[in-house]
Amino acid sequence: MKVTSKQIAELCGVTRGTVDRALNNRPGINEATREKIMKVAGELGYRPHFLAQSLVKGQTKTLGIVLFDMYNRIFSQLFHAFEAEARRHGYFVYLVLTNKDKALEIEYLNNLLDRKVDGIAMSPVNMGPTLDSFLKESGVPVVTFTNRVSAKVPFVWIDDKQAMKTAVHHIASKGYQRILYVSPPLRYKGKSNIYVPEQRYKGFIEACTELPDISYTVITDYDYLESLLRLIAESDEKPAILCSSDIYALDVMRFLKVNDIRIPEQAGVMGFDNIDILHYVDPALTTIDFHVDEIGRRAAEQLIASIQGRDIPRRTHVGYAIIERDSL
């Protein structure tokens, strides 16, 4: 049978208000009484009725987090950090996966709102004024990461454009004069929210413009590996293959090995994200590292601050660094 705060009050000889102050760690109660109430509650296996509390307090102590999927290790790392920070503040987290389906994303957002979550963190697939208005009208605080919605919605991530510029300059400093840039998501431009790939592409083009000795080709094909092989064969000049994420870089490295193209002797490869499975890759992949755990932690921290009525920045950038390994 479920134990109630009323029963605890009767057993301890105090009012329900005193029990409520003890269980919720609020002032106005002496320490001996608090300890007695907590001891009785523990012995009886008392668990708070969150639904009843939400009716009184207007909060459910729950958050929603909306991700593309868990195939990319970036998202699983980010979620673990987000959930740990939320739990530290006493929040339970609902996780939903959209699989980059725009209709499913809206359905899941509505489901989370129906469950009266106090706030939502999301990596959006949808974009534009329609999503902006939807989030505003939802009535709950929202924080985004990876893809941005608008300047009105708080965003926690890295400066992708500047980070990619840093990557290009690093490649040039290694003596490469030809770069093959692999970014298949760019073919969805205008069809879906690809803020991150677009920012990385802008950084790539800006950097190449600043380096007149660099020639480059951008590869966005679905069959990007075959296109890559053709472009490598067309020139005797050793290229650097710069990928918009480590996932593509790992595919490229596997494909080059299958086709007997040595890395880095015949082609250099560089990724972006520094996902944790790179520890098992040979040759070790040069990449851009950023603090994914910090993004998850700060997204949760800022979302909770917003729920509490505090002002939070509209844009938060975490740091990044080149991790130089053997593939360039």
From TrEMBL:
> Which PROSITE patterns does the protein's record reference?
HTH_LACI_2
Q: Which InterPro entries match?
A: HTH_LacI (IPR000843), LacI/GalR-like_sensor (IPR046335), Lambda_DNA-bd_dom_sf (IPR010982), Peripla_BP_I (IPR028082)
Extract one GO molecular function annotation from the record. Answer: DNA binding
Note the superkingdom of the native organism: Bacteria
Keyword Cell membrane in annotation: no
The HTH lacI-type domain is annotated at: 3-57
List the SMART domains hit by this protein, alphabetically.
Answer: HTH_LACI (SM00354)
Keyword entries, A-Z = DNA-binding, Transcription, Transcription regulation
**Presence of keyword Kinase:** no
Give the protein's recorded name: LacI family DNA-binding transcriptional regulator
What organism does the UniProt record list as the source? Paenibacillus lignilyticus
- Lineage of source species: Bacteria, Bacillati, Bacillota, Bacilli, Bacillales
